[in-house]
Design a protein that fits this description.
By secondary structure, the chain is an all-alpha fold. Helix content is about 70%, strand content about 0%. Helix 3 crosses helix 7.
């Protein structure tokens, strides 16, 4: 009993330590007169306001930035799921020559920093394809995610082979096997891939900053960085406005995780086979 109390106590302290920066960000975004010290985490109720959100929305279009971030992130997630599922299924279930070498290349891709590829990608997408200042130009470099391929492959490897053998005997083709047999059993992998993929493009700054010059096309992370660098000093409360922008940027990611975090631990891979 005592060990459980100690364990839960440590977990609570750790959770509070991780949550404090988010709380401090929200508290800072609601203060009329900023207090960057620790005492600012406990503001006076008379010092609370929502004007900081109005101020930053007047300098950068928050709704437009959120829409751009949503389109960018949604396109990346779509490509990640579709190609991740197809490639993971092919690497785990199908038998073909060169499968092990292909998977080794997939693992090798993960150790190559994206920064090394950024210049040739920019030249190819902006100059050769003419896709600068476009959603497609932002999405293409992230359309296939090798990490998602690995995740789906590992999940597909856990599925009982008897399920596929039985379905093949019944005359099911591979796409039917994938859609009707494999995908329903790897829902945790789908949600995990969506959540992990969402964080990357939603917070991505460098590539959208390079490929977009039109402010109406920039995701919220880029718009917020431009605001901090060029506009924040001219506002009445720069600290509060920056915190307000950070809250708007972080809120969708936090909400998505809170809604779906319970699915991280769910697993029903064994439910398809009885006996």
């Amino acid at each position: 009993m005592r060990s459980k109390i100690v364990t839960y106590g440590v977990l609570v302290v750790g959770a509070l330590a991780f949550l404090f920066p988010f709380y401090y960000m929200i508290a800072g975004s609601l203060q009329t007169n900023p207090d960057p010290s620790i005492a600012g985490a406990f503001p006076n109720p008379g010092n609370l306001t929502v004007e900081n959100y109005t101020a930053i929305d007047g300098r950068i279009n928050l709704l437009q930035g959120l829409a751009n971030s949503g389109i960018f992130t949604g396109g990346v997630i779509l490509g990640t799921i579709v190609f991740g599922v197809l490639a993971g299924y092919a690497l785990a279930v199908l038998k073909w020559r060169g499968r092990s070498a292909t998977f080794a290349l997939v693992l090798l891709v993960q150790v190559i920093p994206f920064q090394l590829l950024m210049i040739p990608l920019y030249v190819m997408i902006a100059r050769d394809y003419g896709l600068s200042d476009s959603y497609l130009g932002m999405i293409l470099p992230f359309f296939i995610n090798s990490t998602a391929v690995v995740i789906f492959r590992q999940y597909f490897l856990q599925l009982p082979k008897e399920l596929f053998d039985a379905a093949r005997i019944d005359g099911a083709h591979e796409f039917r096997l994938l859609w009707s047999v494999a995908l329903p059993l790897v829902r945790p992998a789908l949600l995990t891939a969506v959540l992990l993929t969402f964080i990357g493009p939603w917070n991505e700054f460098l590539w959208p900053f390079l490929i977009t010059k039109d402010a109406t096309m920039q995701p919220l992370a880029v718009s917020l960085a431009n605001f901090i660098s060029n506009i924040a000093a001219s506002t009445t409360n720069p600290f509060g406005a920056m915190m307000a922008g950070a809250v708007v940027l972080a809120a969708p990611a936090v909400a998505l995780f809170l809604i779906f975090q319970r699915y991280f631990t769910s697993n029903d891979l064994g439910s398809g086979v009885k006996g």
